[in-house]
Amino acid sequence: MLARIGVIFLPCESWGPSGFLCAAHDLLRAHGKPVTCVAQAAFGEGTRLANRFDFLTFRSEKFTVDTRGYRNPPFTVTPKVLLVGSSFSLGMSLNDEDTLSAQLNRQLGPTVYNASIWIEPTLTSSRIKRVSTLVGMKRGWVLLELINRVTYNYEPSPPLPLPNRREALRGALQAAVSSAHHPFAMVRISSLLNMRLHNDILFPNMYKDLYLEEELQTGRHVLYFGEDEAFSRKSVSPAETAGAVAQLRDDLNRSGLKLAVVLVPTGYTVYYPLLRKNPGPDFGKQYMSELTSLLSQEEVPVFNCLPLLRGAAAKELTAGRLVYWPDDAHWNPLGVATVARSVAPWLSAL
């Protein structure tokens, strides 16, 4: 127990698992000022979780968190778009300048505020409305990034509770936790625990089977997140996700916010046609195509990134390059740039 507690206070280093460094070493630092962490030799979460250092891919990484705890540079104007989604739109495993929001802003001007944290299977408007108020965006667009890893559901925003002593205490505790650090603190702790304790030396590594090894047609081996493979190898109806998005759209409309959706595929879905051993029907493509159709029927603007990324993946593979990291579940700068070039004019047209 003492060892586990001690890990929390280990300093931020020049190397470490990509995307987790800015969950910062000074856990009790007061919230309210921007923080930047730089890793000269970051690496992927597949390497970290599975302890597969034979897939180690070092890269430099700058990770900046603003005064509100979100990954943005200082915004001097009111944004027109809130980007909300998973770690893909947050920009895990990417430099600040390579994130989706950063690349869109270079093409559109300071338009997109990145309010992404991690994957949230339950869609609700409460956090979105809170962030829009914080950044002074009374009207505008919410760009919701969905990934084909889970089925999404909808939950109405909870009503404001009547003030009482219990609720006041709960609110004070929540405020204390929030001010202690931004949302990535617990991820940082988990990361350090796994790397330094759950390494099959001090403690068994309970995460080693989360990443699976696959071989591409060129003979290159890569790691994929096991949940991504499981989701893409079975037929899943997107109807519940489409219904949840439509309900979120209606909820946001009542507050003057419009909703658009960008569908981002997992790396396993993108490289499925390029695997040396094809395991069967292309359910990943089927799911994203059907979801695109259902959202269009609901009159929700939607951009499906799968055809774009599959085309880029096949083209780049012939040159020995990837659009997703080989040791991580996330896309790399080349993959993000491929999407941003097409999403920017689509978003501008909205």
Secondary-structure content class: alpha/beta
Strand proportion: 15-25%
Give unreliable regions as ranges: 1-17, 23-30, 175-187
CATH superfamily descriptor: SGNH hydrolase
Q: Which descriptor suits the 3D outline?
A: globular
Largest pleated sheet: 5 strands, parallel
Please tell me the CATH architecture by its name: 3-Layer(aba) Sandwich
Helix segment count?
13
- Domain count: the total is 1
Q: Compute the number of strand runs.
A: 12
Describe this structure in words.
It is a single chain. With 350 residues, the chain is α/β, with parallel strands linked by helices. It has one domain (2-349): SGNH hydrolase (Rossmann fold, 3-Layer(aba) Sandwich). The chain is built from 13 helices and twelve strands. It has helices at 2-8, 45-50, 87-90, 100-108, 126-134, 165-180, 185-196, 226-232, 239-253, 267-271, 283-297, 306-317, 333-349, and strands at residues 15-17, 35-43, 59-65, 81-84, 112-114, 122-123, 140-147, 153-154, 211-215, 221-225, 257-264, 302-304. A five-stranded parallel β-sheet has the order 5-4-7-11-12, sandwiched between helices. Strands 1-2-3 form a three-stranded mixed β-sheet. A two-stranded parallel sheet has the order 6-8. A hairpin with a 5-residue loop joins strand 9 and strand 10. The longest helix is centred in the last third of the chain and has 17 residues, at 333-349. The radius of gyration is 20 Å and the shape is globular. It starts with a helix and ends with a helix. Mean pLDDT is 83; it is low at 1-17, 23-30 and 175-187.
